[in-house]
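Worked example 2:
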Amino acid sequence: MTGQPALTLFRKVVCVDPDDDLPPTDAAAALRLIQDERSATARRIDPDARLLYWPWGIAWLVGFGLFFLRFPPGEEELLRLPSWLPLTVLFALLLAAATVQAVASVRAYGQVSGDSARRGRWYGCAWALGPVSVYAGLGRISEHLPHDLAALLWSATAVGLTGALHMAGGAIWLDRDLFRLGVWISVINLAGVFAGPGWHALAVSVAGGGGMLVAGAVARRQQRQRQQP
């Protein structure tokens, strides 16, 4: 019994190639090894960018699109729908988008620690608490406004806050594309507000939702380039 472990250890030592544990002596081989490790880490950590952008883009495209069809500029609706349906669909799609993003982020960044993880948690708190505090104030004001202006106030505030948080995220992580998306959302929100009720929903649906879909496709393409060995 006492001699068997020694014999096994001897055989393992003899059979191991000593060159396997040595770092590559060629500089090019070492560089390729580093690049392969970086690509593998990026594939393991980075969530699919489409899961972070496309659910929100679809929610805006469909939800605000229904708002425009049900409450267009003027008196006559473009599509006969129950008045409660656009808001219900929009909230359901936004909730689904938030769930998809949360699951993708937890799976990707759950084991990440340090300053990046702390920034992510604090930024997530801004997304959670910021809208709640703003909407609480809107609830006290919108009841004194006509229906079309109240809807414009709610949607413009929500979209404007989204653009500001996107720009803040781009500044935190020095992500130029995320910052540009925040600027784009803010610009179309401003244009929609000046255009008035109805037109704002159309601008956010087409330009805002479509912009998020394009941003997701661009981010995914860049992601694949980073993940290539």
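The CA atoms of residues 145 and 161 lie 21 Å apart. The helical segments are 3-15, 27-45, 49-70, 85-109, 115-142, 147-173, 176-195, 199-227.
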